[in-house]
Request: fold
Amino acid sequence: YGAIGLALSDAFFIEPNISHISNNILKVPYLPSALAGLKIVHLSDIHYKPDKDEGLLSAVVEKVNHINPDLIMLTGDYVDIDTSGIDPMLEYLAKLKSKHGILACMGNHDGWCNDGEGEFYKTRFEKNGIQFLINENTALTINNETLHIAATDFIWNGNPDPIATLKGIPQEAPLITMVHEPDYFDTMLEHRDHHLQLSGHTHGGQCRVPFINYAPRKVKHGKKYIYGEYTKEKSSVFVTKGLGTTGIRVRFSCLPEIALHTIQV
Reply:
């Protein structure tokens, strides 16, 4: 019983409140040498719960700002069951610092909590200095080179449009896409055979079996690509464990993650 008690205590009271930084080296096809080594902080699945997540998010902001990243990318699910937490959560996100900007996309919970209406989030995020992309892309100029960032709408009952998302991006240009649900990677590949996709959605399973690192719980649109980097053809997708929880506020053998990506050719 002692071991079970310790495991339950860890899962309910310790792990959900402690974030860790993972260091990942990811390839971006056609990346100019002047952009090699850029550091991108990738955050996802905050599922902000007022009166519960303040400590976690405050510590995450402090850790990210200490990293001093070149870019910050947020891949959805800012809310859990309603939008009441958006404005207080944005007070934390507005404190994030990045040399070349912060970009965000929709998650399925965000869409479900607001009848799929992305403008609600777009307006609030952009008022706080965070560029919010929905089925669109932008071109960043960094070190006199261009890096393209594109993001779809959420997938699960949303309205993703890969053609609109990728419109105008040259075929042989460095591209990072933000798609909340990772399994949509296969669909994006049908439209773009060279890119890096950043995703969340799965929470890495939220609770994993220790030692064998197995995630027994899988979610729709997150069954093929659950955690970490997967490469297919000339592209890859990285799925972060995210920061928050959905359902019961519990994590086990699956700490909230600040994913720090160093991009290379």
Summary: The mean pLDDT is 90. Helices lie at 2-14, 54-67, 86-93, 108-112, 119-127, 162-166, 185-191. The two ends are 51 Å apart (CA to CA). The chain is about 25% helix and 25% strand.
